[in-house]
């Protein structure tokens, strides 16, 4: 294999960084590599390392980029910490210095993608990296979708092609979603093409995928399943905004030979080493379990409860001297903060395959089999061809989730429960936060499938169980809650938005921050594409119900 002199590569990337206003310093990136230029290129580290960085980026700067926005708004998490004196995102005062991390982390990932493109072009001419680029494309789509689901318009298809004046255009969320689906379709085709080649072909390409893959260890067929499963996720996301395309795209998924993530052995979990939530929760005490998810799981007598949370340590929360599972309600007066609420339940993630929140062997959850089956259940409810039977899909979704968390022996009794509903919320520190039986903020949905229910009630049942199964993926859970209205969540008691966000409507999106407004991104265009004011009340394109 021909190795081009490293100076040529550095010059090419230096020009690239200047032209595209990339974040970071390539010289520092290069100096971090072990060995000289020959080793750096001979073993593909120049591609492998940024590919790994793209995967690890999903949890980078996690507290500000994700935990203190989408995680909290999903109802899965909360906090006892009085950030900014208790007036912050959780009380609908949008924190510019927190939320700017959302696009900043996207920039990191997309800049790594540009580095890979440039390395391949200048240092590995003639080598076919079809599968590597397909995997990279999937990672970019996942990253951009998580940004779009919080902000709306997103710089995606034009990220590395700014206009002549240096300004980079946004994709509207509608265009972005259609681009995501088209690009996933192309990625599936490319992955299957490489998958079907003899072992003696695409050797370098397959080697790079294997060395850089923190999810599937180089299994190209599983990457194709992930891409097809994501296509189904995005198809259902547009079910209210563009029903015809939603149906079309979903039916393409069901007809695809790529298959879907239908079993927990295919789950997309990034091996991240230390999960950042391990210190956010257990060292800093800044993340607690959310009141809504505990209310549902307590009411359902959900066997996964001990996998999702630790019992509270504060004796004030005990019942008859026994520790309980209790979350913190979002958007409340935290009184003295951690001294008052720090003894409530902490989040956990003890899966059958290991502790997702481990400080040494953590896993970052991207997509699991349970989600596939709940997507199929909703697709079947909507009458999409190839989706299968709605009840069977719903029950399989629950069974797969129970398998993920090591509770398979309990699933039959859970599926048969046609009585249990969400439990009332009692806050022993402040009765004003209580949500008692009969309150409209408590759902009356049960677990057992009932064919005689209305389609809307069936949808609530599907999405409520899907939400429970998505844990701890707050961004996806919040997106689905906004799209469907389910599960029913608790409203904030303290609304510091200055009237911008309606308490009953709840927050719909994260506004763009000053970093974006003052960047070379076309902010004026993004606001026009929003179709409303750049605040937390404006609904996203897919939020049409």
TrEMBL record:
- Signal peptide start-end: 1-23
A Pfam family reported for this protein in Swiss-Prot or TrEMBL: SusD-like
Highest taxon of source: Bacteria
> Which spans are transmembrane here?
none
Q: Matching InterPro entries, A to Z?
A: SusD-like, TPR-like_helical_dom_sf
Which keywords does this chain's UniProt record carry? Lipoprotein, Signal
This one is known as SusD/RagB family nutrient-binding outer membrane lipoprotein
Tell me the organism: Chryseobacterium pennae
